[in-house]
Design a protein that fits this description.
The chain is mainly alpha-helical. Helix content is about 70%, strand content about 0%. It has 9 helices and no strands. The radius of gyration is 20 Å and the shape is elongated.
Length: about 200
């Protein structure tokens, strides 16, 4: 390169834009109804530009799912940190996580409602995320109830995760239970259920 030549300006990757556009589309439409062209249109790119960043739609969906799962685990671990006073209150920790899920509604709808059974690779990723969630919830149960045996903590974590997943679906789809209780009371009852599972008394 001669002295007078200039290097092309660095162009930041638009992978994040592609994933955000895909998650927004998938929040309201089944996966089979969303094409790479739809995703390209939603983020102001051409299909060719999408294929520059991703091998195809399945690759986009996997990365979106992985990104959401990573953020959700980080959020749970942040509040489950044993150095924090709240770590001995599983109901409060998971109620905070449920509200975080609501704040990330587009990706959450894909994760909790629309991604199940789409492909073997997506199912494998969902299983891996669930295992990490279960491990963190088991630690949370033991922190709240130090006398709890490991096997009991594992079963308790399974119940806590089931409550979180079903409550997330209810909240994201705004089903009859969510609408009848309203946001505040739904969260109160959810927190009570989690604390009951973990053997924690609560006055909330």
């Amino acid at each position: 390169m001669t002295t007078g030549e200039r290097r092309p300006a660095h162009r930041p990757s638009r992978r994040g834009d592609v994933i955000d556009a895909a998650m927004s589309l998938l929040a309201s439409r089944p996966s089979e109804d969303v094409t790479v062209t739809d995703i390209a249109d939603a983020c102001g790119m051409t299909p060719a530009a999408i294929y520059y960043h991703f091998a195809g739609k399945d690759d986009i969906l996997l990365e979106g799912l992985r990104s959401f799962g990573t953020l959700m685990l980080a959020e749970l671990r942040l509040h489950a940190d044993p150095t924090l006073d709240v770590s001995n209150d599983p109901g409060a920790v998971l109620a905070d996580l449920l509200q975080w899920i609501d704040q990330n509604r587009a990706s959450a709808r894909f994760y909790f409602i629309n991604s199940a059974g789409l492909s073997e690779s997506i199912e494998a990723l969902r299983r891996a995320i669930r295992i990490e969630l279960l491990e963190t919830m088991a630690d949370l149960a033991r922190a709240a109830n130090p006398a709890m045996r490991s096997a009991e903590a594992g079963v308790t974590a399974t119940g806590m995760l089931a409550a979180l997943e079903n409550s997330a679906v209810s909240m994201l789809s705004q089903d009859e239970i969510w609408l009848s209780l309203g946001r505040r009371q739904f969260l109160v009852e959810f927190r009570r259920i989690i604390d009951r599972l973990a053997g924690v008394r609560t006055t909330a």
